[in-house]
Amino acid sequence: GENVEQHPSTLSVQEGDSAVIKCTYSDSASNYFPWYKQELGKRPQLIIDIRSNVGEKKDQRIAVTLNKTAKHFSLHITETQPEDSAVYFCAASGATDSWGKLQFGAGTQVVVTP
Amino acid sequence: DGGITQSPKYLFRKEGQNVTLSCEQNLNHDAMYWYRQDPGQGLRLIYYSQIVNDFQKGDIAEGYSVSREKKESFPLTVTSAQKNPTAFYLCASRPIIGGELFFGEGSRLTVL
Question: Which terminus in chain B has less CB density within 10 A, N or C?
């Protein structure tokens, strides 16, 4: 099955700086890669996703890049703000497990200091 | 409002007791999931169901059971066989064609 590794586990950034979180996956047939944000005590919520036929996707201050050859994808947050502080999870959908199953990374605790 | 409702939000139980966590969705999603969240371990899949009356084991199914008698409902039972049941449990659902996974607010189970 799919295995997803996420780094770093914690990330502290100064407000206004950029944050980058990286994930690697094992199943070369995986084709869907979402990123979720979970604020303290709340449910995870989708912030951006990318499919394997696209190399990069942007949504305002958030971008995701995908390198299928190297089997890794990254989340980039620019001009960080205190409200970006949360746990971020990457995930991958292993094609061999059908559309149903998402494998999550262990999460990255992002702290944005004013 | 469409969404996923989990109950109870907090639950305390004595060791050796079975407990059932409720999950109801009105999003008309075909697929439903149960994840367990522990600090530093991300979200681990317990069980998932793609259609009514059918479900599959996830990565950590031992000590858990589920049922899917209705499209809207996917309850999770944490049995006494689960060695370390204290955790945060998240239910989620997704349309059959794929796309965004929607999560409930979660249920925090503490076994004393």
Answer: N
- Phi, psi values for residue A69, rounded to 5°: -65, -45
User: How is residue B27 written in tokens?
Assistant: 């999003």
Output the pLDDT for position A11. 98
Q: Determine the pLDDT at residue A20.
A: 98
Q: Band the pLDDT of A81: cuts 50, 70, 90.
A: very high
- CA angle B91/B50/A43 to nearest 5° reads 20
- Taking contacts as CB-CB distances below 8 angstroms, the residues of chain A near B44 are 104
Retrieve residue A82's tokens.
């205190």
DSSP per residue over A36-67, as a string?
EEE-TTS--EEEEEEETT-SEEEETTEEEEEE
Answer whether residue A51 shows pLDDT above 80: yes
Nearest CA to B79 out of B32, B13, B29, B27 is that of: B13
Whether A103 has its CB under 8 Å from any CB of chain B: the answer is yes
The reply to whether residue A101 touches residue B96, judged by beta carbons under 8 angstroms, is no
The phi, psi pair for A19, rounded to 5°, reads: -125, 140
Is B40 a residue whose pLDDT tops 80? no
**A93 close to B (CB below 8 A):** yes
